[in-house]
Amino acid sequence: MVGIEAILKHVLNNVLDPEPDLDRVFHALADPGRRSMLERLGEGPASVSELGKPLAMSLAAVLQHVQILEGSGLVQSRKLGRTRTCSLNTETLRSAERWISERRTFTERRLDRLGEYLASTADQPDAPDSGQADPAAPRAQA
Amino acid sequence: MVGIEAILKHVLNNVLDPEPDLDRVFHALADPGRRSMLERLGEGPASVSELGKPLAMSLAAVLQHVQILEGSGLVQSRKLGRTRTCSLNTETLRSAERWISERRTFTERRLDRLGEYLASTADQPDAPDSGQADPAAPRAQA
Question: Across chain B, what does the average pLDDT equal?
Fold first, then answer.
C-alpha cells in the first residue's frame, strides 16, 4: 500500500499539478542558504543533515529552509526509516526557468526586429527619428 | 556630457558587472505585481504609469516596485523629458535563468545515468537492490 501511495503522491506532485506557485518558487530561490541546498541536491538526493552540513546554522533553521523549499515544490522528500531524503523537482525548476526565458526571448526578438528596422531605414534620406517610435513592438493601449 | 554619463552607466550595469545579486533578482521575481510589470516590459519599453495601469495600486506603490526591479538589475530606466521609461535587462534575466537551468540539467543528466545503470543491471540475476545506492552520482563527503 505504501508503494501505491508514494506513486500516487509522485504523480499528483509532478504530473497533475501543472503550474507551481511562482511567488513561492522565487521566494524560495531568493535565499543564499536555500540556493546552496539546491546546488547540493543538483548533485543527487541528500538527507536534511547533509544539506545543513556546509551551512553555519542550527538543525531547526535547516529544517525551516527545507520546509520552504518543499512548500514551493522545488524539493520533494520522503522518509526511509529514520532519515528524510530530499531531492529536486525538475518540473518546478523548469516552470521558473520557462517564465524567465519567455521574458528574455520576447525582448531579444523585439530588439532584433528593431535593429533590422533601423538598418533598413538607415539608408533612406528622410528616415524618421527612431527615438520615439518602436515599430517592432506595436501595442494597443490597455 | 549627459550622453557620456548614460553610456558609461549602461556599460557599468551591463558589461562590467558580471554577476547580478541573485538574492535581489529572485526576491524581485517573487511578487505577482512585479512579474506582471516584467511581462509588460517583455513587449517593449514602458513608462512607470503605463506599468502601473493594469495594477490596482497607487503610483507610490508602483514606483516602489519599479525601484525594487531596478535595484535587482532586472530593469533599467532613463528619463526623457518628464517621462521615465523602463526596459528589461536581458543579461540579468539570463543569469537567473542559467542558475536554475544548471540545477535542472545536472539533475536530469544524473537521473538519465541512473536509468541507464538500472536498465543495465535489470537482466543480471544477482542485481543489488538499487534503493540505497546511487552509483550515477558518487560524491565525496564535504
Answer: 84
**In the A/B pair of chains, how many CB contacts fall below 8 A?**
114
Rounded to the nearest angstrom, the minimum Cα separation between A91 and chain B is 8
Considering only CB atoms, B30 lies closest to which of A27, A80, A88, namely A27
**Confidence (pLDDT) at B130:** 47
- ipTM of this complex prediction, to 2 decimal places: 0.74
The shortest CB-CB distance from B96 to any of A88, A100, A111 is to A100
Shortest Cα distance from A87 to chain B (angstroms)?
9
Residues A22-68: pLDDT tens digits? 999 999 999 999 999 999 999 999 999 999 999 989 999 999 999 99
In chain A, residues with a C-beta closer than 8 Å to the C-beta of B108 are 90
Task: Please spell the DSSP secondary structure of chain B, one letter per residue.
Answer: -HHHHHHHHHHIIIII--S--HHHHHHHHT-HHHHHHHHHHHTS-EEHHHHHTTS-S-HHHHHHHHHHHHHHTSEEEEEETTEEEEEE-HHHHHHHHHHHHHHHHHHHHHHHHHHHHHHHHTT-TTPPPTTT--TTS-----
Query: Is the pTM here over 0.90, yes or no?
Result: no
